[in-house]
Write a structure and sequence with these properties.
Elements: H1 8-14, H2 17-26, E1 36-40, H3 46-53, E2 57-62, H4 65-74, E3 79-82, E4 94-100, H5 111-120, E5 122-133, H6 139-151, H7 165-175, E6 177-190, H8 196-204, H9 214-232, E7 233-234, E8 237-251, H10 255-260
Parallel strand pairs: 1-2, 1-4, 2-3, 4-5
Antiparallel strand pairs: 5-8, 6-8, 7-8
Helix pairs in contact: 2-3, 5-7, 6-9
């Protein structure tokens, strides 16, 4: 997973659309009130609070110390803990694990390991409800940055994993899940302010710029923004061409029997 130095305050102020869109994913949870839910990759805790307000027992887990600090400050009555999606461990197994806008940050080679770990943290019949970037997400931006990097003599490393339903479903099934819901859809997403696209790049595309002089970074971003203005600047608003993928998958009670056949 990319080691992103998140600015919790900036994220909260300018990128609140991330948890706002995630509210709709909560509707995929089918567990009754009082169930034990994990918000995996909880960020600043906005959605953790929404889960809490729905009557669940909830813990928010995130790999970012900055985000956990912000979440604890904003929601002192909710439990938060540091943890990575690949190896977090619960004292008691969860009835559901919820995750919004996290899995695309995990390396493709480590996705199966992550899904096995999630499976092992769930009670039998427990469900995984998640949304993350799907195939083609922000492709206009990434393709343009790729070209700008090349023209400046650098390689643009794509650190995100954006799968199709057909690519991801077998991984869930291999981990032992039964898929009950899957969807892939476009969700053009408005950014705040006249510098919305540049701000988005600086927040979410940090890893490819590592080791590049700051002046050259700014040149690349400015160049990319100029090239994308005719495509993504619509009605005086910057829009990033998001594509999202959603799943609800249930821990298969018969997995062990299937393995022994």
């Amino acid at each position: 997973m990319p080691n992103i130095n998140w600015s919790a305050a900036n994220y909260k102020e300018n990128f609140s659309f991330v948890p706002a869109y995630g509210e709709a994913v909560l509707d995929l949870l089918t567990k009754p009130k009082e169930s034990y839910i994990v918000d995996l990759g909880c960020g600043n805790g906005t959605l953790t609070k929404k889960i809490f307000d729905r009557g669940y027992h909830v813990i928010g887990i995130d790999d970012s110390p900055q985000m956990i600090t912000q979440a604890k400050a904003d929601y002192p009555n909710i439990e938060f803990a540091a943890g990575n999606a690949l190896n977090f461990s619960l004292e008691r197994k969860a009835d559901a694990i919820f995750s919004n806008a996290v899995f695309h940050w995990i390396d493709k080679a480590k996705q199966q390991e992550m899904l096995y770990n999630i499976y092992n943290q769930l009670n039998e019949g427990g469900e995984l409800v998640c949304e993350f970037g799907g195939a083609g997400c922000a492709e206009h931006v990434h393709r343009t940055l790729e070209q700008c990097f090349l023209e400046h003599g650098f390689e643009y490393k794509r650190v995100f994993y954006f799968p199709t339903i057909g690519q991801y479903s077998p991984m869930l099934e291999q981990a032992g899940f039964r898929i009950e819901y899957a969807a892939l859809f476009d969700r053009p997403t408005v950014q705040q302010g006249v510098n919305g696209l540049a701000d988005w790049i600086k927040m979410f595309v940090q890893k490819p710029f590592e080791g590049i002089d700051e002046n050259i970074q700014n040149e690349i971003i400015c160049d990319a923004v100029n090239r994308l203005k005719n495509v993504l600047y619509i009605n005086k608003e910057w829009i990033v061409d998001y594509v999202r993928i959603r799943f609800r998958a249930v821990k298969n009670k018969d997995k062990d029997l299937d393995i022994n056949k």
